[in-house]
Design goal:
Pfam families: Fasciclin. It comes from Pontibacter anaerobius. The chain contains eight helices and seven strands, in the order αααααβαααββββββ. With 185 residues, the protein is of the alpha+beta class. It has a seven-stranded mixed β-sheet with strand order 2-1-7-6-5-4-3. The longest helix has 19 residues. The protein is globular.
């Protein structure tokens, strides 16, 4: 009985406090919350139950720390956290290490953000394309407006010569892990 009475008092107190605040104060608080939610974007949604999206999967991979840093620097986290669907060709850290010395560091500078975005968007196709549907010579239009060419030979699938090492389904598409960075022409 004591617990029920304590709960009732707490609820009544909360209701009285809410009633005492002016409509203007309530509106201001609502605006603050809405502004914070809007500023954070889709990537700020906390969901520990659903399948992870392409950004969350990449962020949980120790082999994709360079890619994740690049996506954050290019301010593409929210875009790639949206519903999609996306097919992402995700270069490993080792793939980035194959680029000439200083390339990655240079692209991570604020003044190179548009170049970085162009390169990252060249790794994304809008739609879900699983590895088993690729055909040799198939051409795909990427988000940046460029095109990539798929290769299929002896069970090995490539994109512009980069080998697909693994494919990971996500809540908003599929990630194809690749062994090279794709560079737009």
């Amino acid at each position: 009985m004591k617990k029920v009475l304590s709960l009732a008092v707490a609820v009544a107190t909360g209701a009285m406090l809410a009633a005492c605040s002016s409509p203007e104060q309530q509106t201001d608080i609502t605006r603050e919350v809405q502004h914070e939610e809007a500023a954070a974007g889709q990537s700020a949604v906390q969901d520990d139950e659903s399948q992870k999206n392409v950004v969350q999967v990449a962020a949980s991979s120790p082999d994709h720390t360079t890619l994740v840093t690049a996506v954050k620097t290019a301010e593409l986290v929210d875009v790639l956290s949206n519903a999609g669907p996306f097919t992402v060709f995700a270069p490993t850290n080792e793939a980035f290490n194959q680029l000439p010395a200083g390339t990655v560091e240079g692209l991570l500078k604020p003044e190179k953000r548009s170049d970085l975005r162009n390169i990252l968007q060249y790794h994304v196709y809008v739609g879900v394309l699983n590895a088993d549907i690729f055909e040799d010579g198939q051409s795909l239009g990427q988000v940046n407006g460029g095109r990539v060419t798929m290769g299929v030979k002896d069970g090995k699938v490539t994109v512009n010569g980069a080998t697909i090492l693994a494919s990971i389904p996500t809540s908003n598409g599929v990630i194809h892990v690749i062994d090279k960075v794709l560079l737009p022409q």
